[in-house]
Write a structure and sequence with these properties.
Layout (H helix, E strand, L loop, with lengths): L1 H38 L4 H24 L6 H31 L4 E4 L2 E4 H22 L4 H17 L1
Antiparallel strand pairs: 1-2
């Protein structure tokens, strides 16, 4: 019985992570697309760094409040979150875009609602979402052993009542 409750909890957490990940990814893509198509900052790199930074901010609050329900001190947590997310985005998203766009010259685009959108950004996002989940779960929002034991004991006592 306890295994099913634990599985449901993990499934709930992962589903909430996916929903928040979709929101954050769309925020990243829309911000990037608007900066590239309307503002025209002169370089896709500037647009990409701004869109990454903005989406990391949105991601932090969604993950802290809804997904992992963190009660940790916000300052060390937000620092770890931003540093890890920025590093993962720099490697997987920006690095892949740099490689494919600049080095190889691969730049397929699709038009969505009249705005040009780079397919390369979508490819990088897949790796970013997966990497971010594991870093968030096991580094940034990890529960201390004492809190995890208390949480598990609370669940066990709740199961006995049911």
């Amino acid at each position: 019985m306890s295994k099913t409750v634990l599985e449901k909890f993990r499934q709930r957490e992962f589903i909430l992570y996916l929903i928040s990940g979709i929101i954050v990814t769309l925020t990243n893509w829309v911000t990037y697309s608007l900066l590239e198509n309307l503002v025209n900052l002169g370089s896709w790199r500037i647009s990409n760094f701004i869109s990454i930074g903005f989406s990391i901010l949105i991601a932090y609050f969604l993950n802290r409040i809804f997904v992992f329900r963190s009660e940790q001190n916000i300052f060390p947590e937000i620092f770890k979150f931003f540093a890890s997310r920025f590093l993962i985005s720099l490697i997987f998203e920006h690095g892949l875009m740099e490689l494919l766009l600049t080095v190889i010259g691969f730049d397929p685009r699709i038009s969505i609602f009249g705005y040009e959108f780079q397919v390369v950004k979508v490819l990088g996002s897949v790796f970013v979402v997966l990497g971010n989940y594991f870093v968030s779960k096991y580094l940034v929002f990890k529960k201390t052993i004492t809190k995890q034991r208390k949480h598990n004991n609370d669940r066990k006592s709740l199961e006995k009542k049911i």
